[in-house]
């Protein structure tokens, strides 16, 4: 059980690095918003947790240290929740509408002479992330206008 949780967290972190966070994708995929929120949480929530802990202990006294510690742990767990969601999402199979769209985008890349490593038997959101990343790197600037 604990190894599955750790695997999901690691997969979520890797998925957040591979997903293209582009303005064009915000309206279609929730990944962009979750990735931005998780990166924000990783940067700022440790500081907020420390400040919260120190203020609670200073104002309320040492007898409230367990509650202050619990609050700090809750705040520190928030980025992990984002990585967990991303890890689960990366492993989900694509719905049929996105499988068709994946195939069309893959064909467009192949027409442009870009080699695509595809696992056509069981496409997942991680495969979509890799293909979108490749498309944003290799295709002309306005390619997404005809797709979205």
Enumerate how many helices there are, as a single number: 5
What is the string of helix and strand elements? HHHHH
Question: Which structural class should the secondary elements be placed in?
Answer: mainly alpha
> What is the helical fraction, as a range of percent?
over 70%
Question: Could you say how many structural domains there are in total?
Answer: 2
Distance from N terminus to C terminus (CA atoms, Å) equals 39 Å
Poorly predicted spans: none
The residue-averaged pLDDT reads 90
Please write out the topology.
Blueprint: H1 2-18, H2 31-60, H3 65-91, H4 96-111, H5 125-138
Helix pairs in contact: 1-3, 2-3, 4-5
Describe the structure.
This protein is mainly α and 148 residues long. It folds into two domains: 1-91, no CATH class; 93-142, no CATH class. The chain has helices at residues 2-18, 31-60, 65-91, 96-111, 125-138. The chain is elongated and about 70 Å long. The two termini are 39 Å apart.
Keywords:
148 residues; 2 domains; elongated
Give the gist of this structure.
The chain has 148 residues and is mostly helical.
């Amino acid at each position: 059980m604990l190894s599955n949780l750790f695997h999901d967290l690691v997969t979520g972190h890797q998925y957040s690095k591979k997903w293209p966070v582009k303005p064009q994708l915000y309206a279609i995929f929730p990944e962009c918003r979750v990735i931005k929120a998780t990166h924000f949480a990783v940067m700022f929530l440790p500081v907020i947790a420390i400040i919260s802990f120190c203020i609670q202990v200073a104002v309320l006294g040492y007898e409230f240290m367990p509650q202050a510690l619990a609050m700090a742990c809750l705040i520190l767990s928030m980025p992990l929740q984002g990585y967990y969601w991303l890890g689960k999402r990366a492993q989900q199979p694509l719905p049929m509408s996105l499988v068709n769209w994946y195939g069309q985008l893959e064909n467009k890349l192949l027409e442009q002479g870009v080699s695509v490593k595809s696992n056509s038997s069981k496409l997942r959101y991680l495969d979509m992330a890799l293909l979108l990343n490749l498309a944003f790197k290799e295709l002309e600037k306005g390619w997404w206008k005809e797709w979205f």
